[in-house]
């Protein structure tokens, strides 16, 4: 693995972010990091060539802090990846399902498996994260305690999968962004291009409405628009947006020209191919 490039992710080995790295960049060595900031710094400092960062989940919405970190990261989006979040009940080898008395995992996953846990009378134990819970169960060796995590965690920590895909919701998916210190505006992929950008509107009446008008009149589809506060002010909002298309497309270029007239700041975070698994 020493001759491979690295891709940094937040979490312990076996986390769903690790799974995203394995699926999207199998030619890279996955580098676990303690925080999102650490994953970004690993790329900025040269310890990794790419970062895999989760931005939103189909059940729980956007990932906290990510949207405010991206514009200041100095990195650029070059790809997106989707991971179907399948949750499994993992236990020490040789354990039977009826022996499990409690399950440990991140509180979000515990909530997503409520029906299964109630049906089998399994008590919920909150852990720091999914892969960390799998590691803790492996190290403790207690057959009465299981972990809720992905199958990759079972492989890494030597656990048996007692029950697969036990989540209540059948379509829980997390979207990730692949970040690089270098921009890539080349047209690639077979499913069209996406462009992500952030902007801050000028302090004029109906500024957001006017700023968005260029995308409507030019027929550019906006797939995401979110706002969040910046600088500790209730008056200054920054907007994060995804659109279909490339900045060099005539319609997109005209929309950006109009957007710039009503904004104080406009930063393109990346242009990248649409993932074929995008819902």
Automatic annotation (TrEMBL):
Reaction(s) the record says it catalyses: prephenate + H(+) = 3-phenylpyruvate + CO2 + H2O
GO cellular component annotations of the record: cytoplasm
Top EC class, one word: lyase
Metabolic or biological pathway, per its Swiss-Prot or TrEMBL entry: Amino-acid biosynthesis; L-phenylalanine biosynthesis; phenylpyruvate from prephenate: step 1/1
Annotated ranges, domain ACT: 196-273
GO MF annotations, alphabetized: prephenate dehydratase activity
Keyword annotations: Amino-acid biosynthesis, Aromatic amino acid biosynthesis, Lyase, Phenylalanine biosynthesis
Biological process, per Gene Ontology: L-phenylalanine biosynthetic process
InterPro entries, per database record: ACT-like_dom_sf (IPR045865), ACT_dom (IPR002912), Preph_deHydtase (IPR001086), Preph_deHydtase_CS (IPR018528)
Highest taxon of source: Bacteria
EC number: 4.2.1.51
Domain Prephenate dehydratase: 6-181
PANTHER family given in the database record: PREPHENATE DEHYDRATASE P PROTEIN, PREPHENATE DEHYDRATASE-RELATED
Protein name: prephenate dehydratase
Organism: Roseivivax lentus
